[in-house]
Each structure stands twice: as structure tokens, then as C-alpha cells.
Amino acid sequence: MRFEFINDFEAHASADDVWAFYSSPNYPKQVVQLLPTILETKEILEGDGHSVGTVIRVVYLPGYVPHTYNEKIVTVDHEKRLKEVQQIEGGYLDMEFTYCMVSHEILAKECNSCIIKSAVHAEINDEAAANGSIIHNTLDGYVALARAVSKHIGEHHAKSAN
Question: What are the residue boundaries of the Bet v I/Major latex protein domain, all occurrences included (predicted)?
């Protein structure tokens, strides 16, 4: 069975500024700083933190499910402003999912406005399909991230203007 959860968040920041955040080599560290009530760590195991092939170990704070997993960046398309990250070990794969990938696409709207389109794509064995709804929790975290990124960029620009 396949699941797909999508959220479009309107950010009050330019698509270029938002993409610079999502494609930054500091992305793993910055995400933890922006979501201190959700994430414990994002540790780079292989690669540079922002290029295809990078492997990152993600650890959530106690109480979040899944608690930990390894993910691999499988797509970084600067032209489309698209980043895709696939779970490769632990996490939902330990919960009878056969596939779990998250994508972030930054869609330009106006000069200082864009859409952060976050999607969670997952597949689970038909026998375990009742567990499929738990994946929605992952999307909630990415919605919180989109809000935090928009706010962070706005605050950064306000400081720069002073």
C-alpha cells in the first residue's frame, strides 16, 4: 500500500533564500537549532551534508516515533529547487515500511514569497497497512520546519536591514 502526505506552506521569503537554507551544507545543524523541541541530533555519517549520496543519522527527542534512522540524500536539483531524502536504515523501515522518502520543493511565487512543498512518500506491506497513518507525524515535523525556516529568514533579513 502506498501513502503520500503533502503540505504546501506559504513562506514570506524569496524562493532563493529558502532554497539556500534547504540546500546548505549546514542544513543538518540548522534544522536541529530550529527544531529543538523535536530533534536531538542530525549527524553526517558520509558526505558533505548537502550533496547527493550524503548519509545522515537522525535522532528525535524521546517520545517521537520513529526515534532514529539513517537517511540518504538522493536528489538535489538546484534548477527545480528540489531535495529528496530517503530513509535507508531504521525508522519506518523497522516498522514494516518498505520505502520512505521525503521531498522538499521550493516554488517561487512573488519577490518575497514562495511555497515550501513538503511531501512524505511511503510504502508498507498490505498486512501492516493499519500502521500507515503513523507516517503523518513525519509530515507534521516538516510543516514545523517550514514555519521555522520562514521565520528564521525573516528575522535574518530584519537584522540585516538594521
Answer: 4-152
Cell numbers describing residue 160: 540585516
Burial string for 82-111 (b: 16+ CB within 10 Å, else e) reads bbbbbbeebbbbebebeebbbbbbbbeeee
Query: Does the annotation mark 117 as catalytic?
Result: no
- Band (pLDDT 50/70/90 cuts) for residue 162 is low
List, for residues 88-121, the tens digit of each pLDDT value.
999 999 988 999 999 999 999 988 899 999 999 9
Catalytic residue among 83, 117, 151, 159: 83
The torsion of the CA quartet 60, 62, 65, 69, rounded to 10 degrees, works out to 40
Give the residue from 6, 21, 47, 28 showing the smallest Cα distance to 157.
21
Q: Are 51 and 28 in contact (CB under 8 A)?
A: no
Bridge partners, 122 (sequence order)? 3, 100
- As beta bridge partners, residue 39 has 60
More confident residue, 81 or 148: 81
pTM metric for this prediction: 0.90
